[in-house]
């Protein structure tokens, strides 16, 4: 790891279908939040989540397609290596609030807990404001660690739930961040 981590808006010059080839999306999960009887409870749920090289390429190629078309992306780089990224949708939704979705938000495993996610999240929030949103919407992983990270950023349960996103990821926790 170098001492100089830098941040850039993602574009065709700095992000390609191979940009996640060295990305380590690994998480050991032991507990997840689940809604039980109307209350959120932490329950045992043990598994490991890893992105295969094929998944990394698929996610990168999907991001390449959407960046500049209908999403904005930001990346954290260590030299030429992408070590974290965040993408937000350009589509504003919601009846009571003006939401934009935080589509993807990932930090390579060995770079977590260094403030990189906080900086990328801040950049995503600034872009969301520029787009005219007043809240960032997150369909967030339900693991204890992921939820702790989102709460540390100031995210709270979504006041207005996006049913389409909930249906796509029924175990996610629907969250928001007021801009």
Order of helices and strands: EEEHEEEHEHEHE
Number of E-state strands: 9
Quote the distance from N terminus to C terminus.
32 Å
Helix content: 25-40%
Please state the CA-atom Rg, rounded to the nearest Å: 16 Å
Please tell me about this protein's structure.
The chain is an alpha+beta fold. Helices cover about 25% and strands about 40% of the residues. The protein contains four helices and nine strands; from the N terminus they run βββαβββαβαβαβ. The strands form two sheets. A seven-stranded mixed β-sheet has the order 1-4-5-6-7-9-8, with helices on one face. Strands 2-3 form a two-stranded antiparallel ribbon. Strand 6, helix 2 and strand 7 (about 135-140) form a beta-alpha-beta unit. The chain is globular and about 50 Å long.
What key phrases describe this protein's structure?
9 strands; 179 residues; single chain; two-stranded antiparallel sheet; 7-stranded mixed β-sheet; alpha+beta
Write the SSE topology.
Elements: E1 5-9, E2 26-36, E3 39-50, H1 53-66, E4 71-78, E5 81-89, E6 99-107, H2 116-131, E7 135-140, H3 144-152, E8 156-157, H4 163-168, E9 173-178
Parallel strand pairs: 6-7
Antiparallel strand pairs: 1-4, 2-3, 4-5, 5-6, 7-9, 8-9
């Amino acid at each position: 790891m170098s001492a100089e981590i830098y941040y850039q808006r993602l574009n065709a010059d700095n992000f390609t279908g191979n940009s996640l080839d060295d990305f380590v999306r690994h998480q050991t999960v032991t507990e997840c939040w689940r809604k039980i009887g109307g209350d959120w409870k932490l329950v045992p749920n043990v598994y490991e989540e890893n992105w295969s090289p094929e998944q990394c390429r698929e996610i990168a190629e999907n991001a390449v397609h959407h960046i500049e078309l209908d999403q904005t992306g930001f990346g954290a780089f260590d030299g030429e290596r992408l070590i974290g990224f965040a993408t937000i949708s350009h589509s504003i939704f919601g009846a009571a609030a003006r939401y934009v979705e935080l589509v993807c938000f990932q930090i390579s495993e060995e770079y977590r807990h260094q403030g990189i996610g906080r900086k990328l999240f801040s950049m995503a929030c600034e872009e969301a404001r520029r787009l005219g949103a007043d809240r960032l919407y997150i369909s967030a992983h339900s693991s204890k660690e992921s939820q702790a990270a989102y709460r540390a950023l100031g995210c709270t349960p979504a006041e207005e739930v996006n049913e389409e996103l909930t249906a796509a990821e029924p175990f996610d926790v629907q969250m928001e961040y007021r801009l």
